[in-house]
Amino acid sequence: MNALSLKKGASRKSAYDLKNPLDDRQETHTLAILVDNESGVLARVIGLFSGRGYNIDSLTVAETDHSGHRSRITVVTTGTPAVIEQIKAQLGRMVPVHDVHDLTVEGASVERELALVKVQGTGDKRVEALRISDVFRASVVDSTLESFVFQLTGAPEKIDAFIDLMRPLGLIDVARTGVAAISRGT
């Protein structure tokens, strides 16, 4: 850079100093990872996330192919577009990983979660909890004179809304499975 191009008070800018505001936006992505069903694989996948400071919002794992000894790990994670791409690339290079699908960008998908919600209440609060559970199509899987345990399935947003409505009615405890997701269509 020559002296004529720098005016008094102007500073030098490097290409590394220029930030694209779109790169800083946080996105939530659902990743479906097909892996060998063997000991230590889940720990290695989770180690990739924790070792690099990536957050996991939801995690579900189950064997999906008994004869082929394969499991499916569904991870919901949040990060910038660059971080999401880095996660997918690093997962794809792992030896026990057979396939990585970003369901968020590959097209329409179905996401569901199961929750058990325990609510304590008597009188009007008890009646209101039952009314709300009916609206959300939650089923009562346990009942005592002082409490209910509701079972609810649906999108995570639906479960969040149900939990928010149960808080003032005597919410005691919540157990959630995490997101299970699959792409729609062929």
UniProtKB/TrEMBL annotation:
The coiled-coil regions, if any, are: none
Q: Which reaction does it catalyse?
A: 2 pyruvate + H(+) = (2S)-2-acetolactate + CO2
Tell me yes or no: is Amino-acid biosynthesis among this UniProt entry's keywords: yes
List the Gene3D superfamilies hit by this protein, alphabetically: 3.30.70.260, ACT-like. Chain A, domain 2
Q: Which CDD domains match?
A: ACT_AHAS
Q: Name one GO molecular function term.
A: acetolactate synthase regulator activity
The alphabetical list of record keywords is: Amino-acid biosynthesis, Branched-chain amino acid biosynthesis, Transferase
Q: Answer whether the UniProt record assigns the keyword Membrane to this protein.
A: no
Q: Which InterPro entries match?
A: Acetalactate_synth_ssu (IPR004789), Acetolactate_synth/TF_NikR_C (IPR027271), Acetolactate_synth_ssu_C (IPR019455), ACT-like_dom_sf (IPR045865), ACT_dom (IPR002912), AHAS_ACT (IPR039557), AHAS_small-like_ACT (IPR054480)
Instruction: Provide the function of this protein.
Output: Catalyzes the conversion of 2 pyruvate molecules into acetolactate in the first common step of the biosynthetic pathway of the branched-amino acids such as leucine, isoleucine, and valine.
Q: How does it assemble?
A: Dimer of large and small chains.
Q: What is this protein called?
A: Acetolactate synthase small subunit
- Species whose genome carries this gene: Oceanomicrobium pacificus
Q: Quote the gene name from the UniProt entry.
A: ilvN
